[in-house]
Every structure is written in structure tokens, then in C-alpha cells.
Design brief:
The protein is α/β, with parallel strands linked by helices. It has 14 helices and 22 strands. Bound molecules: flavin-adenine dinucleotide (FAD).
């Protein structure tokens, strides 16, 4: 067994969210360790794991000096969004120009986000990878963590332990923190498709009663699709030959996408992810805090999981950027403040996502009529649309966080 190493903060999980947190905290002078299960972190996947980052998240990553490299690897611009229900009237169209921004969001490959984060962390943090937490023990002044690393047991200690280890968080389980939520009994089938014509920087969301189907514009004029399917349907769609799959996709997309994009011509590899809602009952407990998917896993319909995780980081960093935190980063007062900050945002985004799914899941005629009218209202009622635009682009949260920053700098002056 090696000698025990001491850190201020130990982060378990070196994905995007754990990585960005490590970067921010190292800049504040904290001694950071990252425990990551994979030897080199997230590698290239086929099909690509793609996410839509809001304009607000892009601004944040730019502030951290990461965006230039992410964009250089290829970021699709979402300049227009269309939301509709096939075979129903009512359509919401959102435009970046209406929100006064260049793009409402950006479509990026997760590995292209991870790479510059890892490069920026070089020499600033201590990595344990591949490594796993075996156990941890609370002490009066911190937490002792036992790792399996490099073929032997390694002991480290910290004032604060962060669970950034994704949906099936080991840290959440070991801390005895339960979750609220349910299995959607749906799988998200992801793949890329190339169409006859350009995607014109447009993202489409087609709400079908069996589940939503989203088209996100990639930087090379392909679309990345996320198609929510019942388990048996997902198995069938995974097994179909490409040509048949494209036909079925074309039928499902219907008048929403085809008039603009033309026929779907070629298809990349397909993969399926289980879709679930899982929200931790507590975001923090005795020297432990959860961030990113470890704290909340949402259905990807609104494309908010990673955006929400980045806002966890902003709020946690704000709490830890204080004289109290510099004395003891695991102070329960700070962790309660973090949990309180996050609760409303996670509930609002989770609630909005679930209400969209529920309201489009029912095929009753009067509900279809109502949905058509609701979409029509959102399109024509400007104050309602402005609100929607602010949320879609993440501008609401951007304003809130810059206000908080201003407030903080005013008080520290
Ligand atoms: C189909 C689909 C589409 C999506 N689309 C969008 C979108 O458009 N926009 C959006 O904002 N979000 C989207 N999301 C959600 C988004 O992908 C997640 O919210 C985000 O990737 C979570 O990042 P994370 O760093 O918290 O967790 P993860 O990405 O899961 O990273 C966790 C890290 O912890 C490591 N790890 C795991 N277990 C352990 C352990 N026991 N010990 C040590 N390390 C461990 C893993 O190797 C990994 O590096 C989508 C999700 C899905 C499934």
C-alpha cells in the first residue's frame, strides 16, 4: 500500500462535467485529484456521442478558454429550430436572429469536448486512472478514500468528495443517496444521416405519440438523430438493413423535415441508450456532492442534460470560491448552499421535459387538437415565444449566472 496523499477535492468521474469542475477548482488554487474508471477517459465512439450545447453553455466554455478547440474539431450551428407533431397542425419556429445570437446552440461530439478539457488539465491535477473507489470513511476533518489503482490499494484523503461518475454513480450509491424517477421504457436510437440537400443549420423536433424524434445539424451537413422507441421497436430498428431503416425514418419524419432536407441518402452506425428520469434525492451529504448525470439524468428530448451539468459546475464553483470554503471545502453550510441553488433549476428543467413527453404521448383527438393550438399559440404570442427562445438558447441561465457573478464581485469589493 502506498503512502496516503492529501487533496482538497477528489472528483470521481473524469467526463465533461467532472473535468470542467476540476479545471475551475484548480484555477481557484484547490489541490485536485480525479479518479477515472477508464484508462484514457472517453475515447472516440462509433456512432459519435453527440450533444447539443446551448448558447449559454458555449459562452461558459469560451470563458474557460475551451471553446476554440471544441469548435475547431467541428461544431454544428443550430440557427433555426422547428418543433411540430407530424399529421397535426401547429408549428413552433425559433430563429437565432430573434434571440439576437449567432446560434441558439451547437452540436458537438462529446469526445471533442473532453479532449481540450484534458489538455487544459495537464499539470494542474493528479489523475488516478484507470482507478476505482473501494471504500471511503468520514473523519472529523475530511474523508479518507481507498482506491484500487495501478494493481494495488492506494489511500487518499480530501475535504470534499465529488460524484461526477454519471447515471449509475457509484459514489451516490455508496453514500446511500436514493433517486426519484422512472424508466421511460424507451430507448434512444442514435445515428447520423446524410440528406439530399443541406440541413441549413436547422434542428427539428418531431413529437410522435410513440416518442420524440430529433434531428440535430452536424458541422459536415449530416444530421445526428435521436429517436425514442419502445424496446421491441428499438430491436427491430437496430436490425433493419440501412435502406429499410432510412425508409422507416423518412416515414416517421414525414412533412416535418423532408420538404427542406430532401430524401435521406446514407446512414452511419446505430446505437441505443436506455432513457430514464433519475434525480438524486439529495445533491449533497456530509462531505459529498453530486454533479452532472450522477445528480440528474433526464430524457434527452429537450437536449438539456449536459447543459444542466455545466450549470451544476457554475453553482458549485461559486459556492467554493469563498473564504469559508478555503478553510474547509467540505463545510456542510457550503454543501447545503450548493444543493439549494441546484434544486429549482433541476426541477424546472426535469418538469418541463417530462410534461412535454406526457402531453405528446396521448393520441386522443381532443388532446391532439389542444396540442396543435398550444404550438400555434407559442408561435404567434411574442412574449411566450421570447421566453421559449431564452430557455432554448440558455440565455436565461446565462443572465442569472452573470447576475450572481456581479453580485458576488459587488459584495467582495
Ligand atoms: C441519446 C442521448 C442524447 C443526449 N443529448 C443531449 C443533448 O443534446 N444535450 C445535452 O445537454 N445533453 C444530452 N444528453 C445528456 C448528456 O450526454 C449527459 O448529461 C452528459 O454526458 C453527462 O456528463 P457527465 O460528465 O455527468 O457523465 P458521463 O458523461 O457519464 O461521465 C461520467 C464519467 O465517469 C466515469 N465513471 C463512471 N463510473 C465510474 C466509477 N465508478 N469510478 C470512476 N469513474 C467512473 C466514466 O468513465 C466517465 O468518464 C444526451 C444523452 C443521451 C443518452
Amino acid at each position: 500500500m502506498n503512502q496516503q496523499q492529501g487533496f482538497d477535492v477528489v472528483i470521481v468521474g473524469g467526463g465533461v462535467i467532472g473535468g470542467v469542475l476540476a479545471l475551475q477548482l484548480s484555477t481557484l488554487g484547490y489541490r485536485i485529484a480525479i479518479v477515472e474508471a477508464l484508462s484514457h477517459g472517453m475515447g472516440k465512439t462509433d456512432p459519435e456521442r453527440v450533444v447539443a450545447l446551448s448558447h449559454g453553455s458555449q459562452c461558459y466554455l469560451e470563458e474557460l478558454g475551451l471553446w476554440q478547440d471544441i469548435a475547431a474539431a467541428g461544431a454544428g450551428h443550430i440557427r433555426h429550430i422547428e418543433v411540430r407533431e407530424p399529421n397535426n397542425h401547429g408549428l413552433v419556429q425559433m430563429d437565432a436572429a430573434e434571440a439576437g445570437v449567432d446560434a441558439l446552440g451547437y452540436v458537438v461530439e462529446i469526445t471533442d469536448v473532453v479532449r481540450p478539457i484534458y489538455a487544459a488539465l495537464e499539470g494542474k491535477v493528479t489523475w488516478f486512472r484507470p482507478a476505482r473507489v473501494l471504500s471511503f470513511q468520514h473523519q472529523h476533518d475530511g474523508i479518507r478514500i481507498s482506491l484500487s489503482y495501478d494493481g494495488e490499494e492506494q489511500r487518499i484523503s480530501a475535504a470534499l468528495l465529488i460524484g461526477a461518475d454519471g447515471t449509475n454513480s457509484q459514489i451516490r450509491r455508496m453514500a446511500g443517496i436514493g433517486t426519484h424517477g422512472w424508466d421511460h421504457n424507451r430507448f434512444g436510437l442514435v445515428a447520423s444521416v446524410r440528406c439530399e440537400r443541406t440541413h441549413a443549420d436547422t434542428a427539428y423536433e418531431c413529437f410522435r405519440s410513440s416518442g420524440p424524434l430529433a434531428f440535430l445539424p452536424l458541422s459536415d451537413d449530416r444530421f445526428s438523430i435521436v429517436w425514442a422507441l419502445a424496446p421491441q421497436e428499438a430491436v427491430r430498428m437496430m436490425d433493419l438493413p440501412d435502406r429499410m431503416f432510412l425508409k422507416r425514418l423518412q416515414r416517421a419524419a414525414d412533412e416535418s423535415v423532408l420538404p427542406r432536407s430532401g430524401r435521406f441518402e446514407s446512414l452511419g452506425k446505430r446505437a441505443c441508450f436506455p432513457l430514464e428520469l433519475r434525480i438524486a434525492k439529495e445533491y449533497a451529504r456530509s462531505r459529498i456532492a453530486l454533479i452532472g448525470n450522477a445528480a440528474h439524468t433526464l430524457h434527452p428530448v429537450a437536449g438539456q442534460g449536459m447543459n444542466l451539468g455545466l450549470r451544476d459546475v457554475i453553482d458549485l464553483v461559486e459556492v467554493l470560491d469563498s473564504p469559508l470554503a478555503k478553510k474547509d471545502a467540505g463545510n456542510p453550510l457550503l454543501l447545503s448552499a450548493y444543493a439549494e441553488k441546484r434544486r429549482a433549476d433541476v426541477l424546472a428543467v426535469g418538469g418541463f421535459t417530462e410534461s412535454m413527453l406526457v402531453s405528446f404521448a396521448n393520441d386522443l383527438d381532443w388532446l391532439r387538437l389542444l396540442r396543435g393550438q398550444a404550438l400555434g399559440l407559442m408561435q404567434t404570442c411574442q412574449p411566450l415565444k421570447d421566453e421559449l427562445l431564452q430557455h432554448a438558447s440558455g440565455l436565461t441561465h446565462l443572465r442569472k449566472s452573470s447576475k450572481a457573478h456581479m453580485k458576488q464581485s459587488e459584495t467582495s469589493l
